[in-house]
Structure formats: structure tokens, C-alpha cells
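haha ok so turns out i had the wrong file open the whole time. this is the CORRECT one, sorry everyone. sequence first:
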Amino acid sequence: MPGTERQAAEALEGLLKRFRRELSQSGQLQQYRRKQRYASKSEIRREKIRKALRRLRRKERRAQKRSAQRYGGE
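then structure:
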């Protein structure tokens, strides 16, 4: 857990914002949420494949959009 101490004359909102940023950067919150429920190895594998396909489709869409802008297409 990130150790966040209040600095002199720091508002509580600023402290909370800094704590949340450190927590998200450490990845501990994501890890906690992922371990909330059991996932079998096959389920994890399927999820990885699904995310990879989504990244690939997104990359292709962006490339098509760039080429269309470059060459005056749709």
C-alpha cells in the first residue's frame, strides 16, 4: 500500500488525490479487484485472447482512419 503522508498546509482533497494516483500507479487496486473472485486458467487465457483481439482491432481501425485521412477517403 502506498504510504502517503500529509504535507504541511496540504488540503485533504489534495492528499486524497495524491493517494489515489499513487495507488493506481502501483497497480495494487487492479490486483485486488482481479483477485476478488476465482478465475480458472482457461478463463484467464480466454480473457487474454479477447483483450489481444480487441487491441488488434483497435489498431487496425486507427490505421484505416489515418490512411483515409491521408489519401482523402472516407
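The chain has three helices and no strands.
again sry for the mixup
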